[in-house]
Structure formats: structure tokens, C-alpha cells
């Protein structure tokens, strides 16, 4: 396509296409590095959702610095801008290829988030800063060109977000399943150098075609450009950007806590967030915004009304609904933001304030909320903030007129707030998520109806939505938060301690997944329950240890949990627990909460830190039996299921030692993964699927479980299975050619995902 040029010059480059390419490639690399580096850091801080949320906060903060840098450059002549920006690119290239820079041992305590922020800054900070400035700076440069489209270069923002989305999705769907980490790091390095060349070419093209003077507000003939940029307007930009940013992170916390911390699930909420930007800054933006603004209150009512409800069943469906809600709200708010954008002369300032909102929105769920809340209260708070900000109109004009100054309107305004408060309080006491009585359904329906007719009145709608949230589980959550030691939160998750009167047990939950239970009856308090029942795979293995290894058997356990396994200990045995979360150690060793450890192994050695790193410090042949039972909610952290991890496990096993791996999972079929690793390492492997009877489930709180045993050879496996007394129930592992062995450099969960409709 020919472009307009300055008098006396000739267009040697299709300028518009060139700048689309620069912005697209820059954004592609910017969002490709995010899941890539998070994958690199997994072995350092494990698979906590907070790892990703803290990383996202870092990305948003550096993005803000990049936007501020781009804004500041606009005060300089164009040649100076080009020279400084290319110099920044060259200096940042010293950090290639991307990798983890040494920062000493990982901090897994209260300062884990700050430690990770420092690691990110030292490892990729300069590179991320250089690339993050691309979108606003290249748009500002293009606005100085003679191209006819330069007067309104916002179309480049849509190209930027398209590149971002492609980079984000390319990782879990293309790079991670088919390439190893070294290739991914090299690929990003080549992309960075190519981007640097494109930026130099873009600067040369602008200089050759003729640099226009900076645009001013007087140059704009559009209505949006005539409106003054006041502090009130800037604050509105910040709020409209902050709420979707915070919602994106709080949604991520939910789905990665209950399923698995992995790039595939990390990127889904971020992808929805980016799609909203792509839509609203495209030609279809105004229409998409109008539709989203109309749908958003209904979506908030239907899906957000359950924002304080803990969902353990069908968590995948609930997670999908959360992502759809995020998408609708983000389109509505980002669309409102896009419709209020100023003229091109305030372009970099507009993006700067958007970025300020993104950082503030991310700061709340990533750093502030985990310190002040013991549950994910930040999520419903952000949903309420969205309800206040969405510029919704009444469903119909007649419904809107109901609230006006006539008698019915006065009655609605006066009676609705106390009525919904009373209904919410009553439901909060009586509500049952399963087999809800008809009277409660009617009360919920009335609250929903009042909320629907209040759409277009943000304060009233938000008040009803708040009380609906409190009714549907909110008061119960707050009640738990008022009980001492009932629920605590750390960088690695949310832990809830519940007493069940029906089974007379105390249960430990991480997210919505149970991680152990102990009988409240003194006579049964030493009996391991749930996945650790005496006839489960691990129960049989622990009971066979004295027969196989004598009175001085050396036992290692990765993942402390409630400490259930400690009560399989026999006199003279040497026990070591590895636990990444100091808070979990507090819960398991406090006899007022769980007394397994204090009763059965009060002097057990407990090593705090990531098991991969700590096991590497152990001497060879250190353990006769090593049990890997580390879970992040319902899944073993991915880096503990790689070939390199199993090599470190094998290194610590004595000759004839047994490695036990717990692979029970609602969402992933992990048996073929372990089978592939065992085959590559030449280890013998057997699996035991334990299905307790209904009577055992009711009387002893035994749970179904899948434990895999691995030994150095078949002879050791035969001795082990015979020692358990259930040799015929230890079965060969199921292999799947489509599932390769996971490694630190290559792992993909796509082949082992279970259908979400089978979620139990």
C-alpha cells in the first residue's frame, strides 16, 4: 500500500505495515516471556498460584515503567528518542538468553513474594522494560509519520493486543507441548534481536519519510479530542483499568488453586483479559462494548452472586464460568475506557494512566489481599467494584421508571435495602447448597428479581448483589474467618480446618481439596484416614517397611499435610518430612489442631523448602522408603513429576528402596506420565487403586486413592508387593504413547487432561 510522504521524498517502506509488524512482534515477545519464565521458576518456588500472580504484578509494574519511559521520551526530538531507545535495547540484550539469575536460596516464608519480585527484576527486568515500551512508543512514533492514519494510531493498539494474545496462547498450545525449554529460550532470543532490527528500521523509515511535529490538541477535530483531560477523567481511566486487572488475578487464583498451577491455566484468564482489549480497540469495539455493558449486570448476578460460595464439585465448570464472567466485565469496562480515549497528542499519557490502573488492580490481589484476608475475599470485592463501574442502563424504560419519584418508586427505594439485608441474613444462616428447600429458592429468586429491576442504578444493584453473595455462602465464609485457627493463608495457599460432626473428624482443606483428616475420638486419633488408610497403597507400604528394612527403616515424606503418615512410624525408625510452606508445618505440629506428629513422631526431622532443592542436598541412598505426596490443592506441582525429579528421588533411595507417588487427581490422569518416566529410567512400577467400601468411608473417612510404587528393578518390586500381603492388587502401569515422559525442559498437560464434564 502506498503511503503519503513528505514533499520531495519517496516512500521506500510500507510504513503502516512496518509499524503493525513492530508492535505485533513486540507484544508477542512480551507475553510469550511471561508463561515461559514462570515455567522456568517453578522448581524454585513450586506451583503455588501466588507464583504466577506475583509474577503478573511484576509484569504490570515494569509495563508501567515502560509506559512512563515512552511518555517521557516524547519531550525529546525524534532522533534522540530513536537513539535512546535503541541504546536501551542494546544494553538489555546483555541479559540474553533469558534464564534465572542467582539470588541465593529461595525464601519460602512471609517474604516469598518480595524474593520472587527481586528474582524477576534481576533475571528479565531490563529485557521486559525494553519490550514493554514498544506499544505506546511505536504508536507515538507512527503519529509523527506522514501516513494518513497517523492522526488516530489507536488501531496499532489492537495489533498490539493481537500479538499479545498470540504470544500468550502460543506457549501452552505450541511451544510447551512440542519444544523443550532450551529451544524456547533460544526462540525468544532470536525474536528479541529481530525486534531490535525492526525498531531500527522503523526509526529510519520515519526519518526518511519526514518527521511531523508533535500533534497538539488543536490538531484534533474529533469530539474525544476536544474534551479536556482532567484529574477526574484520569481517575476514571485508572479505575476502569484497575478492576479488570484485579479480577484477572483473582480468577487465576481460583482456577489454578483447584486444578493445577501450569501455564495452560495461568494464561486462560489473561487471554480473556487481552481479548477484551483486542475487541474494544478494533472497529467492532463500540458494538462489543454495548453488548457487554448490557450483559455484564446479568452475568454478575448469575455467576458473581456465587462469588463467596466454595465449590468443590464441578470446579472446572465453575472455573469456566468465572473466566466468561471476567471476559464480559473486562469488555464492558475496557470498552468504556476505550470510548473515553483522548486525541493522539495525549496518547502516551492515556496508556500511562491505564498502566497505573493495571498495577493498582494487580497489587490488591497479589500482595495486599493475601496479607489482610484469610480467604479470597478480594474476588467478590472486585466483582462489586465492577458492578459499580459498569455504565449499565435499565433493562427497559418502563422498569427504569419504576424507581422514579412516584409512590411505587419511593416504596422501592425505602423498602428494598432492608428487605434484601433481612433475606440475605436469613439465607446466610439457613442456606444449603445441596437440596435447597423451596422457601430458600423463593427468597433467592426474589433477591434476583429485585437486582434485575435495579440494573441501571449502580448503588442499589451493588447492594443487592452484595447481600446475595453473603446469602450464598458469604456469611458462612465470614463465620469461619472469625474462628481462631479455622483458616489461614500463606503465599502457597489457603488452608481451612473443619470439624465434621457427622464423622467426628477434623479435616484439612487446601482450596477446595481435602488434604487429610484426623478422628476427634481419642481412641482413633492415631489412625491415618482419607488417602492414607491402612489398606491404601501408602498404608500397605508403610506397614511393610519394618519387614523390608528392619527396625531402623529410614522414611522420607515429601509433603507434610496434616501429618497423617507419621502415625505409621515404628520405634527406632528415622523419619524426615519435606514441606515448602512454613504455615503447613505450624498446622501439622500444633497438637491443638492436628496431633498426628506430636503423638507419633514429635522428634521427626522437618525440612522447610522446595523438595527438589532440599532432596538434592541429601546424601545418596538416604531413604529406604520415600513418599511423594506434595500437593497444590488437587495436583502435584508439575516440577515434582519430571524425569529429573524422579532421578533425584532415585538418588536418595537405598538399594531395594521404594518410591511411592500419590497421583489421585480430579482433573489429570497422571498414571501414564509416571509410566513413561519409569520406562525411561528403567525402574519397575506398579499402581494400586484403593476403593474403600461405603461402610469404611462412613465409619473411618477413608477415601479412594491412587498410589504408584517404583523400585530399581523387578526383584525389588516383587519383594515389596509380597511384603504388603496384597501382591495381586499391585497392577502394571497403564502406558499411553501420546504421553511422553515429562522433563524439566518439556512437559505438557494437554494429553492427560480429563474431560471437565467428568469433574467430581
Automatic annotation (TrEMBL):
Family annotation (Gene3D superfamilies): Vaccinia Virus protein VP39 (3.40.50.150)
Transmembrane segments: 18-38, 50-70, 82-100, 112-133, 154-174, 186-207, 235-255, 261-284, 291-311, 317-338, 350-369, 375-392, 412-434, 440-466
Keywords of this entry: Membrane, Polyamine biosynthesis, Transmembrane, Transmembrane helix
InterPro entries given in the database record: SAM-dependent_MTases_sf
GO biological process, one term: polyamine biosynthetic process
The protein, known as: Spermidine synthase
Amino acid at each position: 500500500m502506498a503511503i503519503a510522504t513528505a514533499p520531495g521524498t519517496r516512500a521506500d517502506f510500507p510504513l503502516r505495515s512496518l509499524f503493525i509488524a513492530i508492535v505485533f512482534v513486540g507484544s508477542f515477545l512480551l507475553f510469550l516471556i511471561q508463561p515461559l519464565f514462570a515455567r522456568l521458576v517453578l522448581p524454585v518456588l513450586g506451583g503455588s498460584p501466588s507464583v504466577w500472580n506475583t509474577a503478573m504484578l511484576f509484569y504490570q509494574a515494569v509495563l508501567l515503567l515502560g509506559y512512563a519511559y515512552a511518555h517521557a521520551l516524547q519531550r525529546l526530538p525524534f532522533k534522540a528518542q530513536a537513539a535512546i531507545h535503541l541504546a536501551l535495547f542494546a544494553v538489555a540484550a546483555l541479559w540474553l538468553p533469558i534464564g534465572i539469575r542467582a539470588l541465593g536460596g529461595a525464601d519460602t516464608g512471609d517474604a516469598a513474594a518480595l524474593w520472587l519480585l527481586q528474582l524477576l527484576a534481576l533475571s528479565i527486568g531490563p529485557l521486559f522494560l525494553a519490550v514493554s515500551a514498544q506499544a505506546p512508543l511505536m504508536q507515538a512514533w507512527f503519529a509523527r509519520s506522514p501516513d494518513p492514519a497517523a492522526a488516530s494510531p489507536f488501531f496499532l493498539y489492537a495489533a498490539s493486543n493481537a500479538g499479545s494474545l498470540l504470544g500468550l496462547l502460543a506457549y501452552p498450545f505450541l511451544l510447551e507441548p512440542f519444544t523443550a525449554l532450551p529451544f524456547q529460550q533460544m526462540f525468544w532470543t532470536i525474536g528479541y534481536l529481530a525486534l531490535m532490527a525492526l525498531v531500527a528500521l522503523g526509526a529510519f523509515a520515519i526519518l526518511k519519510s519526514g518527521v511531523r511535529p508533535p500533534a497538539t490538541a488543536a490538531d484534533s477535530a474529533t469530539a474525544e479530542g476536544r474534551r479536556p483531560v482532567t484529574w477526574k477523567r484520569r481517575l476514571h481511566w485508572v479505575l476502569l483499568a484497575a478492576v479488570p486487572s484485579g479480577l484477572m488475578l483473582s480468577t487465576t487464583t481460583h482456577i489454578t488453586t483447584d486444578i493445577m498451577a501450569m501455564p495452560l491455566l495461568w494464561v486462560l484468564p489473561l487471554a480473556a483479559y487481552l481479548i477484551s482489549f483486542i475487541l474494544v480497540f478494533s472497529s467492532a469495539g463500540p458494538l462489543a462494548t454495548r453488548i457487554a455493558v448490557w450483559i455484564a449486570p446479568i452475568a454478575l448476578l448469575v455467576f458473581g452472586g456465587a462469588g463467596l460460595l466454595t465449590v468443590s464439585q464441578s470446579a472446572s465448570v465453575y472455573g469456566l464460568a468465572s473466566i466468561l464472567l471476567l471476559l464480559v466485565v473486562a469488555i464492558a469496562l475496557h470498552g468504556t475506557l476505550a470510548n473515553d480515549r483522548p486525541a493522539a497528542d495525549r496518547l502516551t499519557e492515556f496508556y500511562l494512566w491505564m498502566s497505573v490502573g493495571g498495577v493498582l488492580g494487580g497489587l490488591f490481589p497479589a500482595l495486599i489481599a493475601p496479607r489482610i484476608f484469610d480467604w479470597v475475599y478480594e474476588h467478590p470485592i472486585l466483582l462489586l467494584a465492577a458492578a459499580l463501574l459498569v455504565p449499565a442502563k435499565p433493562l427497559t424504560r418502563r422498569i427504569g421508571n419504576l424507581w422514579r419519584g412516584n409512590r411505587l418508586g419511593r416504596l422501592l427505594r425505602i423498602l428494598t435495602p432492608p428487605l434484601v439485608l433481612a433475606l440475605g441474613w436469613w439465607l446466610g444462616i439457613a442456606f444449603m447448597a445441596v437440596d435447597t428447600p423451596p422457601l430458600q429458592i423463593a427468597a433467592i429468586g426474589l433477591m434476583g428479581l429485585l437486582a434485575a429491576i435495579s440494573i441501571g442504578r449502580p448503588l442499589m444493584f451493588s447492594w443487592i448483589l452484595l447481600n446475595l453473595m453473603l446469602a450464598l455462602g458469604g456469611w458462612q465464609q465470614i463465620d469461619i474467618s472469625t474462628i481462631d485457627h479455622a483458616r489461614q493463608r500463606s503465599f502457597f495457599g489457603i488452608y481451612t480446618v473443619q470439624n465434621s460432626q457427622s464423622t467426628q473428624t477434623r479435616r484439612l482443606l487446601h482450596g477446595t481439596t481435602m488434604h487429610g483428616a484426623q478422628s476427634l475420638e481419642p481412641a482413633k486419633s492415631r489412625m491415618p484416614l482419607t488417602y492414607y488408610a491402612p489398606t491404601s497403597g501408602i498404608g500397605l507400604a508403610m506397614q511393610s517397611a519394618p519387614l523390608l528394612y528392619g527396625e531402623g527403616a529410614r522414611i522420607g515424606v515429601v509433603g507434610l499435610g496434616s501429618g497423617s503418615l507419621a502415625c505409621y512410624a515404628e520405634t527406632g525408625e528415622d523419619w524426615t518430612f519435606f514441606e515448602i510452606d512454613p504455615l503447613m508445618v505450624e498446622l501439622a505440629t500444633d497438637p491443638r489442631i492436628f496431633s498426628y506428629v506430636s503423638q507419633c513422631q514429635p522428634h521427626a526431622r522437618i525440612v522447610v523448602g522446595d523438595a527438589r532443592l532440599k532432596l538434592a542436598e541429601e546424601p545418596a541412598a538416604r531413604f529406604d522408603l520415600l513418599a511423594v505426596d506434595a500437593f497444590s490443592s488437587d495436583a502435584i506441582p508439575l516440577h515434582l513429576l519430571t524425569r529429573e525429579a524422579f532421578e533425584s528421588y532415585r538418588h536418595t533411595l537405598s538399594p531395594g528402596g521404594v518410591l511411592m507417588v500419590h497421583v489421585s487427581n480430579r482433573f489429570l490422569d497422571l498414571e501414564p506420565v509416571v509410566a513413561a518416566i519409569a520406562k525411561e529410567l528403567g525402574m519397575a512400577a506398579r499402581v494400586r487403586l484403593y476403593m474403600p467400601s461405603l461402610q469404611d468411608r462412613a465409619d473411618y473417612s477413608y477415601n479412594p486413592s491412587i498410589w504408584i510404587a517404583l523400585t530399581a528393578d523387578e526383584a525389588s518390586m516383587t519383594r515389596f508387593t509380597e511384603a504388603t500381603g496384597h501382591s495381586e492388587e499391585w497392577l502394571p502401569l497403564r502406558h499411553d504413547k501420546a504421553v511422553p515422559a515429562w522433563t524439566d525442559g518439556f512437559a505438557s498437560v494437554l494429553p492427560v487432561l480429563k474431560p471437565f464434564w467428568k469433574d467430581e
